[in-house]
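One record is set out below.
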Amino acid sequence: MARWRGAGRNDDALVVTGDATFFGMDMKSSDPASIKPGFFREGYNCRVENGGLETRKGSLCPGALNIINYNQIWGTGIFSNPNGLEWLAIATISGVWFARDGEYPRFVPMSEKIEENVEFTQCFDVFFMWRGPIKVPVLWHGDWSIYWQTFPPPTGGRQTVPNAYTAENAANRMLVPYGKDRVAVSDIAAYTLFDWTIDDFQINQGESDDLVRVYPWQQQMVLMFKRRSIYRVANVSGDLSQAVLEKLPGTIGLVGRHALCEVSGDIYFMSHSGVFKISQVFQDTPQPNDVPSSDFIKPVIDSINWNASNLICAGYRRERVYFAIPLKNSVRNNCLIVYNIATGFWESIDTWGDPDFRCDDIIKMDFNGERRLYMVDRIKGLIVLMEQGKTDLLGPTHDYEYQIDMSVILRGYGTQGGRNRFPFMELDIASWNPELTVTAYPDGGSGKTLVTDKTMDRTKYRTFATPRWNPLNSKDDHAVPRRQDYSVQLPIILGHNGVQIERRQETTERYPVNLMGRYMQFKIENSTGYVNVRTVTVDSYEDQREPRAHT
């Protein structure tokens, strides 16, 4: 190897490969060496931010939402009082709690026990609870002094809308799906009544297919999601005799009532073939994509327990869409898959340190003045704020605090030659209290651990003979540069200059590899704190030996 940067006449030319930015996962390509630059093989508990790969944010149990011991939760929904505030409705065995950030929960009891899953629907200021085809639904008018009531008796030759699992509000009417594929449409502003002779529709063109979800969209249009097909109903306003039913092309449908979300007019939904998107390509003409958006994570889609797919739920915040799915043999949602709308690729599979935690619902409501996503574990009776902090706090005390295990498997790095020698690799990272492990995997070989559980000492400096930093910050010098790590522990003195609690240290980590192969993959793991992988650089030399003959 040459001493200087340039290679001499008799030296092998150094080939530098790597990634200076990241986009998302590519789990579909069978050959890791064929994955395009910027993509990585697998990602767990990570996010793509500004081209870097970083540890995802944690979770938090807000005190205002979890101060009540709910035990079993039978359903959740949002009640947005037109004349008041927005509340999270939480159905328990004895009634419904209404909770919101910053206030003590309120309780509206039921005259009978709730012992089955329920759904909530709001039509202006009337809040409905749907209890399935056997039990009659009940309603509440937002008055804390008045409890849940049954529907008033029908008048004027009308009938009460049928019992159902759920309903939707559209065009100042209530759309109630019931039976296999029928929809009862209420009178305008009289949400409990309908004319069964003219306002009862069957969504069918001659197939055995269950109606899963009625979804009001835009421009007086309603989408009817069935398990293997999608219909659209146009002109859902005023006189319904002008409504037009049309089947969208394709044989894709919806796996569960909550397995979809709308993002700026586009609908992302889970079918048995993966995640698809419906866009408004032309006016009044929705069009589903031909290729699923989840094509790059096909192995994950294939691992879903489709027997429990009716429990899949979805939500979005900012530039990300989240799907809670049951993987392998799980009968409840045991992980999240995260789609980045900005990059157009999937970036992570999220899991939790508590092996018993499950995500049964994803809801959006206010937290500290901002619209945020929450996960609900119905069995544990927990409501968890997503993307908050640096750990998963899945309970009322720190006994339920879990570190976030980030893990990323990169693509296969190599040259055009069939055999390469890999002497070194470099990682440009920004870290905060990390515990880093890097493993190299050549093709067809076992892994070689380059570094195990490497930590950064918050008291040591990288410059020679510099005295250690006092963890109490007694000299008011927390911001002095070149320290290994800037995380802090209590107690600490803030001082005149203050303390940057989440300041990250940027370093270049260089590790010897000394392996040969057609390509080289690297697995980066971090078990505490935070790591942002900004660039990956891999040195390699193409092997010039003639291949040996096999006899």
In short: The first helix runs from residue 63 to 66. Residues 15-39+407-542 form a domain with the Jelly Rolls fold (CATH 2.60.120). The chain is about 0% helix and 45% strand.
